Amino acid sequence: MTSRQAYAPSLRLENVTVIRGNRLVFNNLNLSVAAGELLWVRGANGCGKSTLFRVIAGLLGAFTGKVHADGKLALADENLALDPNLTVGAALHFWAQMDGATLADCDAALAAMDLLSLADIPVRYLSTGQRKRAAIARVLASGSAIWLLDEPYNGLDSASSAHLDKAILSHIAKGGIVLLAAHQSPSINVSDSLILDAKGRSV
Ligand SMILES: Nc1ncnc2c1ncn2[C@@H]1O[C@H](COP(=O)(O)OP(=O)(O)OP(=O)(O)O)[C@@H](O)[C@H]1O
């Protein structure tokens, strides 16, 4: 969270039911996350972690129920939202401008994910881990209060994981919210965890 958001964000899901195809992914899911909290979202493959993030981000509709998000949201998932034909710096700046961010915000995000030396190469040349870092940098540069990070540690080396840990800790220390989907326990302390099961319930 940056000075662009000086209030306390919050996130609440109220009786959210989601159906994909003929599969009930969630049934009456309730969730509340307050400013300064890091929520670890966990569960087996296919339990609905990515679906949950897409519903919260407004990319997928809920069948019933409501998402109440007080604060700007940013999602980093497997779909890299950066134009492959632009340089990393230009692609990041494109999105950051839409979020009211400055070039300095972009540079700070690139520096946070140790990407400054890659700012001038096209996004399509990035390796898997570098793409992941660029996706996270986009979230950082957005100045969003609520971060939705879907498997952000996948493909990161230990130095990059440490950069991400630091960015998350800094964000929640400033009162931001982070939802982190991961199979492995994060190395930083989480405020709470949401465990999803295969029958559309939180357990
Ligand atoms: N477009 C779709 N149409 C129908 N079903 C879908 C669609 N996309 C995903 N699903 C189903 O929704 C369920 C939840 O998928 P989701 O990707 O949210 O799981 P996940 O917990 O993120 O899994 P993983 O740990 O493997 O990343 C799965 O059973 C999946 O097959």
Structure commentary:
- By secondary structure, the protein is of the alpha/beta class.
- The chain has a single domain, classed as P-loop containing nucleotide triphosphate hydrolases (Rossmann fold, 3-Layer(aba) Sandwich).
- The protein is 30% helix and 26% strand.
- The chain has five helices and eight strands; from the N terminus they run βββαββαααβαββ.
- The strands form two sheets. The protein has a five-stranded parallel sheet with strand order 5-6-7-3-8, sandwiched between helices.
- Helix 5 links the parallel strand 6 and strand 7.
- Helix 3 packs across helix 4.
- The radius of gyration is 16 Å and the shape is globular.
- The chain starts with 9 loop residues before the first strand and ends in an 8-residue tail after the last strand.
- The model has no long low-confidence stretch (mean pLDDT 91).
- The structure holds adenosine-5'-triphosphate.
- The site of adenosine-5'-triphosphate (ATP) has 12 residues, from strand 2 and helix 1.
- InterPro entries: AAA+_ATPase, ABC_transporter-like_ATP-bd, ABC_transptr_haem_export_CcmA, P-loop_NTPase.
- One of its GO terms (molecular function) is ATP hydrolysis activity.
- It comes from Sphingorhabdus contaminans.
- Keywords: ATP-binding, Cytochrome c-type biogenesis, Membrane, Nucleotide-binding, Translocase, Transport.
- This is Heme ABC exporter ATP-binding protein CcmA.
